[in-house]
Design a protein that fits this description.
D-Maltodextrin-Binding Protein, domain 2; five-stranded mixed beta sheet; alpha/beta; 3 domains
Length: 296
């Protein structure tokens, strides 16, 4: 019978990250300690678990078997421990999402949640990356796009909760001034885009509208996040692609408009990512129920 479960914990972490240094950071031990424990495990099992390829640590065939078994075993242990240590609803909850979503959608509504659940102390952090929830001490990540499921570790829950179409958005004054009626009319002004638009780029939208003059367009403004893009167009600078719920108030009062009501072929899918064995799960469930209701 295998007796040193700590070696399996370290191995699972190193295999998941494909890195001794990242495993050391998560486990709060030295990289040398991780390396030593992996040598102990390989000697005890009398097999090679890792294969080094350049700077990357890959699993051998035997290592993959041990990794899958270790994840299942540790999952069962974590489930049992979480039932014992489940925290009550009252307490702190850390939520992560993109800068645009936290700034433009969540923070204007956080008072509503706090009034309904004053016992929950919400901590909000913004990040556009697929952060390691455990390492970053995040209880719930609200994520968007086409890569979320692929980027989410199997140990985490990834719950889909809807999608929204993306449209070109600009100020009403600019739309009137330039007579923005057809897709090609948008080429009269600045196109505001994210530096990394991923699936929501202008080229795909123009291709979808069968507009072919984009390659000659010279008026571009690049920004880091969608809230910056919306701030630009609110002040009359060009057109951006965005989901309407990020600027619904300005659309409702007529400050912003959707000049060409043709959506991008890729809708923005929404997901809630969390640890199903977290001791704060009851607290997260309260927030997730509120979020789904608000966005339905």
């Amino acid at each position: 019978m295998f007796k040193n479960i700590n070696l399996l914990v370290t191995f699972e972490c190193a295999a998941r990250h494909k890195s001794y240094s990242l495993a050391a950071a998560e486990l709060c031990i030295s990289q040398a300690a991780v390396s030593q424990q992996m040598r102990q495990l390989e000697q005890g099992l009398d097999t090679k678990l890792f294969i080094r390829k350049g700077r990357e640590m890959l699993l051998s065939q035997q290592g993959q078997i041990v990794f899958e078994s270790a994840q299942k075993a540790l999952e069962i242990i974590n489930q049992g421990l979480s039932q014992i240590h489940q925290e009550e609803i009252a307490g702190e909850l850390t939520i992560s999402s993109t800068q645009a979503f936290t700034t433009l959608w969540l923070m204007p509504r956080i008072q509503s949640f706090s009034e309904q659940h004053p016992e929950i102390k919400v901590r909000v952090v913004s990040s556009s990356d697929f952060d390691d929830l455990k390492q970053a001490h995040i209880d719930l990540a609200i994520r968007f796009g086409t890569e979320v499921v692929k980027q989410t570790p199997r140990s985490l829950a990834c719950e889909y909760f809807g999608e929204t179409k993306v449209y070109p958005i600009c100020s009403a004054a600019l739309a009137d001034k330039l007579s923005l009626i057809e897709a090609k009319d948008l080429l009269k002004t600045w196109l505001v885009t994210l530096e990394n638009p991923r699936a929501y780029d202008w080229q795909t939208w123009f291709d979808h509208t069968e507009t072919t003059d984009l390659s000659a367009h010279t008026k571009w403004t690049q920004v880091d996040s969608t809230d910056m893009a919306i701030n630009a167009v609110v002040n009359g600078h060009g057109v951006t692609l965005a989901v309407p719920y990020l600027c619904q108030r300005q659309l409702d009062n007529g400050e912003l408009v959707i000049p060409i009501p043709v959506s991008h072929p890729n809708p923005v899918k929404r997901y809630m990512v969390y640890d199903p064995n977290s001791p704060r799960l009851m607290r997260s469930n309260v927030f997730m129920a509120w979020l789904k209701k608000e966005m339905s």
